[in-house]
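retry 2 of 3: previous attempt timed out while embedding flavin mononucleotide. Reduced batch size to 1 and resubmitted. Inputs unchanged:
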Amino acid sequence: MTSSLIGAARIAYSVSDLIYVIESNSPKSLNSSIVSELTNQAKKKNILNETPELKVLSSISDPFSKLHVQLSKGSLISVIIPSISTNNILINSIPHLYKISNSNKNNNNGGAVVIHIALDKNESNQLGDYTDIMTLRQTGFAILYSDGGQETSDMALIAHSIALKTGVSVIHFFDNDDSKGKIKKFGNDDIKKLIQESDIKQYRDSILASNENKSTELYFRSYNGIPDTSSDDQQNVAAADENSGNKSKNNNNNNDNFFTITENIFKKFKQMANRSYKLIEFFGDEKSESIIITLGSGATLLQKNFFEKTETEKIGLLKIRLYRPWSEQYLLNNVPKSVKNVAVLEQVIPRTTKWTPLYLDVVSAFQNRNYWPGQSPLITCGQYGALKKDSIDVKVAQLFKNLNSNEPSRNFILGKESFKSQTEDSNDFNDNESTNYIESSPVLEKPYLKMLNEVFGVRLYIANSALKRNAGNFETVKSTPEFGFGVLLSKLHERAQLVDLVTRVVKDNSIGISESLHAALSQWLLHKDDSILSKKFGGQITEILTSSPPTHPSIIKIFQSKNLFVKPSQWIIGSDEWAYDIGGSGVHHVISSGKDINMLIIDSQPYTTRTAADPEKRKKDIGLYAMNYGDVYVASVAVYSSYTQVLHALLEAEKFKGPSIVLAYLPYHSEEDTTITVLKETKLAVDNGYWPLYRWNPQLEKEGLEPFILDSERIKQELRNFLDRENHLTQLIRSRPEYSPLITNSLESEIKTKQKSLAKSAYDKLLGGLTGPPLLILFGSDNGNAEGVARRLQKGATARGVNARCMAMDDYPIEDIALEKNLVFVCCTAGQGEFPQNAREFWKHISTTTDISLSESRYAVFGLGDSHYWPREEDAIYYNKPGKDLDARLELLGGSRLTSLGLGDDQDADGYETGFQAWEPELWKALGVELLGAAVEEPKKTDDDMKVESNFLRGTIAEGLEDTSTGALSERDTKLTKFHGIYQQDDRDLRDERKAQGLEKAFQFMVRVRVPGGISKASQWLAMDEIAEKYGSKSLKITTRQAYQLHGVLKRNLKQTIRDINKCLLDTLAACGDVNRNVMCSPNPLISEVHAEVQDFARKISAHLSPRTSAYHEIWLDDKIVAGQAVQDFEPLYGSTYLPRKFKIAIAIPPNNDVDVFAHDLGYTAIADNNGKLLGYNVSVGGGMGMTHNNKKTYPNLGQFIGFCKPDQAIDVGEKVMLVQRDYGDRSNRKHARLKYTIDDRDLDWFREEVESRLGYKLEPLKEYKFENNADRYGWTKGADGKWHFCMYIENGRVIDLPGEQIKTGLREIAKVHKGDFRLTPNQHLILGNIAEQDKEQIEQLLKKYKLDNLKFTGIRMNSMSCVALPTCGLAMAESERYLPTLVSKLEIIIEECGLREDAITIRMTGCPNGCARPYVAEIACVGKALGTYNLYLGGGFYGQRLNKLYKENLKEDDILKELKPMLNRYAKERNDGERFGDFVIRMGYIKATKYGKDFHEL
Ligand SMILES: Cc1cc2nc3c(=O)[nH]c(=O)nc-3n(C[C@H](O)[C@H](O)[C@H](O)COP(=O)(O)O)c2cc1C
Ligand code: SF4
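retry 2 succeeded.
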């Protein structure tokens, strides 16, 4: 045990009733030795002749929490902290220390504690690290330092004496030192000379008096809160000002008293022990020109190794022993007046702020004209680096040399690193100007600043900015929280003065102001804190005084202060750097000030780099810190996760009367990061609780409401602990039971355990009784092919009596693999020859380990791939690479093959089945079971079997919804829910991370809402907006087929979502699935009557072809679940097997082909006569977009006409077309099941005849029509009935609020007043339809306000369209919606150069070849192949009349731009009049025209 610690402990024992030792983790021996030392002492008595109580507390048990209660009983308490190296003990104690010193304010004596703290030494320089001590400097405790065994013992005694005599609690700190130097012990009689029994009695009496609420004049308690007559306000300002050096007079008086008492104690101590100490000591030349000011053991080091050895001409050392209270006068009295240069040296390691605390104290002291009237010396700031004893003298000499040089470095390290050059100018300290910092902030951080501007407008006042990246390096003092805090305090003060002045003027009749001015001033006084009314009455005052200028000096002054009338929204903006030094920085000032000040702290540490961040640095959770402190509004938000939550938080923070801290997440690696990167990082952080979204509003608690609102799913452990402690959690769970599994159980471990046990033993039951050889089947599969093969193998094995288990490779505990006798791997190929997601970990391990021997195992591998996926010759290596690699590796590890490697190729006649059929028998043969079981093998279940067995789409959906153990539904139910308009998805951005954490995928559901013809009411828009907000991912998607789409709905919210949708008279039934889907119809009513009639037809045919099952109602709306087959539904059109595949209908009204009528299974082209009367429809059949890359048997197709029908025949025709497809469509191969293949397999005439024979009449010959484009018609149009329509541009149909783009809010505001309808367009835009002339202006204004009237985009952007793709679509191979805008921006540069800005060119993008955004009719199309890689198609018809063709495969962004640039250039120069880009590329020979779908692959 260290001698210093012993010295302090002995004194503590002698003068306390109660001693706490705070147990630390390292080094362990310290605790036990200090405890045994104190136990030894127990044989003795303390100075009151009693045996004190000794308690050992754990540092994680919040040991300070009850201290103030015990102190208030008059106990003499010491706390000993033998080491602070773990658990942030000091930082966590800060709120409690404040409580203790606050209980000593205003004539109260709540009792004073003495805390002895031993600091661990830094290895590089053997000096203690004072970082944490410095964070305590505003707590109101006195801070006293000692060095070495004897001094520590002496100072410990002095500390206790100070506490008793002043009532101020004391922190006494010293370095842990191992010197076994002798300490002169104090006997109780010695001690009593310094601490008399009468002192203790007086101390206790004063506490009792305080408890009884009697005031006593005798004691000062906290040096910055000693008896005081000023208002709370002033006191707080004084406390806060303390750091900047502007102490109030009152405060200094109190400090004077403290110093007088303390000096007397030092004198008395000298008389008693004959050792003398000073509060501040100076060594060196009295005429020094350069001095070092320092605090702590470093001072002793310098003194011994330099000042005591060297001639100290004109140089000196000022050693500070008492750091708090801080007296500028005291300090400067000890500084020679000859000083020109000062170096402040601090023991903070590592340093996290540019300007250290002591430095700031010293600077402000020299700026105090009362005590240092001359010119302030040049002050530099430094810290101790790695120091070797024998070179200290050299280093110090260098330091003085630097000080005396012409341009000394202002920021330096004494030791290892020599003087670092910094260019900061100390003038920054005097600069109190506030600036608008928004422009100078990093690009990516602007979203929050934009939002502040949006929300608070002119009321916004930002006092500072500190948004720089590099940790520990504040660029300027202006960026520090202290600076911002100071500025805001002075603002508050200015406004308080104005309030005083106005109050006096209103009361003072002698001034003789007008009645109106009197009324306005009085009203302003009443409402000065109301943002709206303060503006209103402030405006009135300004108006009155402008029209009759004042003459009275007080009124003139009021007028001059008119910019203070409106209640400001005051913000300090900072970076997460501040979290490294919360207690030490102004963050703490704000938290503890009680002032109505808001702080926005932006954290930009990306989730994926969090562990790589400097582990030495301890970043603290400011939110937790503030909540611990109490009465502070705290919110943790992330704009890329929820705009609405940020909005709520900003508004609530502003409204909260007191300090507010908003922690805002905006992760990025560099300024060049794309939005997608920021979005992904945000999602990862929010999803797994690293950055929980929450709001903590103490005001709500006062109103009896729950103060904590959890806005994200998961919560981090520390926060959970906090809530537990605060007992709020119990209440929260009681009132919101749905949080329970999220919060109370450890989600991670629960699911992990579950998954493990599933993986290990799920099949044990199944296998009981089987006798054949054991077989483990492991698969790697992204989209289900390989998994399907593996599962079939398992069934085949079971049928043959083989003990087979089957699971994903990554789910298998790899350490057991050598024990497996027979192994079969089925693995697909992903990316470019990569392993699929659920096999990567397994491969990583097995490809690098040499520890596994498979000498006892036999194995077989079947790989799935596509030999044409990467068609270039040199890319052949990627074909089935994982299967091949795995096969080779297993051999290398000693395994013997059951059978040779099998390969499935998508290019084979039957795809991978071809290869599999050949390979499978070999496997059974090798296992010796080839003759068994084939007959008993279960036949493969088809989708039709599934439909039939589902009891009209019920399946086990209802039961699945009740199962809370997983966020997913069973595989079969996920197929069925599609018929209900619901797709199970998972957030693919989170897959890897969740997998790494052993969590199941982030399952969520996409809900598609059918809107025939795309027309919905304003009330329905509002309802959808609200549902998205409540249950979805906040945004709404307008789809390419005129439906609403919600994303991110969790299973537990699914039912309520569907209910709410139905409540607003919309529904989701048949929005997906093998049925007729949402019926599309041109939404822009140029010819009103025709349009109304066609719309009516759209609604009717949609209703006519809807499934009749009651399952939808039963599962989602009724709650009455009918078990088994009790209810027999009847589907007159579909029967129990429904259609072979989806079926799509669109109705176009020429000349606009916005619906892409030929891209649908069934198309109606409306024909009107010259008077605008609907004659009927040309009917086209067999259109469809979907195909599979490189699979020539699949292709997109355009519909072909089969004839004309009258309006009253149209439903019948539609029904019959669908029924022919129902009966003839291919039900054995889903890739070949769409109507286009049914027709192509026979021919169009056959199809027409089949339809006509079912109709009983012939279709008429086609009527003439003309299409001009397939785009939306933007802007204002007026219908024949005089009603107005406005078509706005919504990029990719995504309705979302983003900083600076409040599309969702804007449309919500419009929906509240709009009397017409909301029409979803086929190009994902929106029409506000049927606006009466008299309402147009109001709508125009709202459109303008929310910038929704902006149509000044380039022609290419206005004609761009993308599907959703990543992160939700399970089939996406590449980005689409999130990326197309970026690609278009890059193309726009080329377009502008070519002068094609206004030219309409259609460009479409999809994440996979399924074609949801109808890419194959676009003039330019990019279809995802792999991440960042697209196939480029060119030559589609401008009005949807021609398919495009593959131009080049596997292009990255640069390649796409490189290919398109020369074409666009030539198009600009060489096109014919009116020639479209799609036609041009064909004419110029870039591409052949595609005539029929079957030609699509012919290059
Ligand atoms: C994005 C993507 C990349 C692919 N890359 C390759 C490849 O590099 N080499 C290959 O042989 N097959 C490749 N394929 C083909 C797949 O391996 C093949 O379609 C397989 O059947 C898919 O199996 P799964 O459904 O189990 O994921 C790729 C497929 C996709 C979707
Ligand atoms: S086109 Fe492909 S990636 Fe895009 S939404 Fe449709 S299925 Fe998903």
